[in-house]
Design a protein that fits this description.
heterodimer, A: about 70 residues, mainly alpha, about 85% helix, elongated, B: about 190 residues, alpha+beta, PH-domain like, four-stranded antiparallel beta sheet, three-stranded antiparallel beta sheet, about 25% strand
């Protein structure tokens, strides 16, 4: 079960990263003012990095085998 | 009319083109969406504080970590969603320059429509404010009737639509007056002696 959940979490993690990259790209490319692009990107990345980091830490500290049943 | 071109620049802006106004949808439009986000955030924080107190037997060491992981995942999704909402709001813009109106519509992340209207093609401008909240907060639509392929150009839910209408009418009239002057000068030049 652990490898399966590891794989699922990897997919989820890369989805977060992809969404984050698209948001940063849009701010950088389409903002009308450079200052608002910098502010938006900085704000997004700071909070996003903290959330992603804690999410990964929490996932790897989960006792997956203890939480889920061993067999169905 | 004072211009704000030094602060704003958009793709496709001509060399001597001056940005006069940059117009977004009224703040109330995004406030409603962010209110939903705030309510969800509040519920998540409340569950984080209240549930361990109400159900302490359920929150042993392993369950508490799982609960925190789920909460953190929801916060990430809320954060991404709120920025997607902000992108949809702030990148939907109408830019009035000294030459034309440019409408940039951002629909999600992967769909972007850009249309423009030269003032010489403006035929008629109508401002519409309908409803209690739009009347109180002074926002509504400005409909520009055009002679171009796109028959109608719409400013949706913009603040102070009457002022936007006046600006478009004045700029349209000044372009027509310029054209008229040029025609009159051309006629005077060609007049036989």
């Amino acid at each position: 079960m652990r490898p399966l959940f590891g794989l699922l979490y990897t997919v989820l993690f890369f989805s977060y990263i992809t969404a984050g990259l698209f948001i940063v790209f849009h701010f950088a490319r389409y903002s009308l003012k450079r200052s608002s692009a910098v502010l938006g990107i900085t704000l997004f990345l700071v909070v996003f990095s903290i959330l992603i980091f804690t999410n990964a830490l929490l996932f790897f500290s989960l006792p997956i085998d203890a939480i889920l049943p061993q067999s169905f | 009319m004072p211009h704000i071109s030094s602060r704003y620049h958009f793709r496709g802006q001509h060399e001597n083109e001056q940005v006069l106004r940059v117009i977004h949808r009224h703040w109330f439009n995004i406030f409603v969406h962010f209110l939903v986000i705030l309510i969800f955030s509040f519920l998540l924080i409340a569950s984080l504080l209240v549930l361990p107190v109400l159900f302490p037997e359920m929150f042993d060491a392993k369950n508490a970590r799982f609960f925190l992981f789920v909460e953190n995942t929801f916060f990430i999704l809320l954060w991404i969603f709120s920025f997607l909402l902000w992108i949809d709001y702030s990148f939907d813009v109408w830019i009035i320059t000294n030459e034309r109106i440019v409408n940039i519509e951002q629909k999600g992340l992967f769909v972007r429509h850009i249309s423009e209207l030269n003032f010489s093609r403006v035929q008629d401008v109508t401002a519409t404010v309908e409803g209690l909240l739009p009347t109180v907060l002074n926002y509504g639509d400005v409909l520009v009737q055009t002679a171009g392929e796109e028959k109608r150009f719409t400013f949706r839910q913009v603040a102070d639509p009457y002022q936007v209408k006046d600006i478009v009418m004045k700029l349209s009239k000044s372009v027509l007056d310029d054209d008229l002057h040029k025609m009159v000068n051309a006629l005077h030049t060609d007049k036989p002696q």
